Amino acid sequence: MYSAVILIVCTGFLEELIFRGMIYRAAKEKMGTKQSLILVSLINAAMHISNLSFLHVVFVFLLAVLIT
Fold first, then answer.
1. What is d(CA 45, CA 35) in angstroms, rounded to the nearest whole number?
2. What total number of domains does the chain contain?
3. DSSP 8-state assignment for residue 20
4. pLDDT, tens digit, for every residue of 27-56?
5. Which of 4, 17, 33, 41 lies 20 to 30 angstroms, CA to CA, from 63?
6. What residue numbers bound the domain in which 14 lies?
7. Dist CA 44 CA 41 (whole Å)
């Protein structure tokens, strides 16, 4: 039970840290705010293509844009 909770929390946290933190910051320095926001959101959505659901990918992209 505890291992499942730890896995869920740590996985989400690390994904957010990597994409919204490190990659976004590096892209922002090179491209600016709007372009880096779109790029990082597209990269994040592309990583969810394996779910084989177009609506899921669109949802992830839009959520990434809103959160970032």
1. 15
2. 1
3. I
4. 999 999 999 999 999 998 998 898 889 999
5. 4
6. 2-67
7. 5
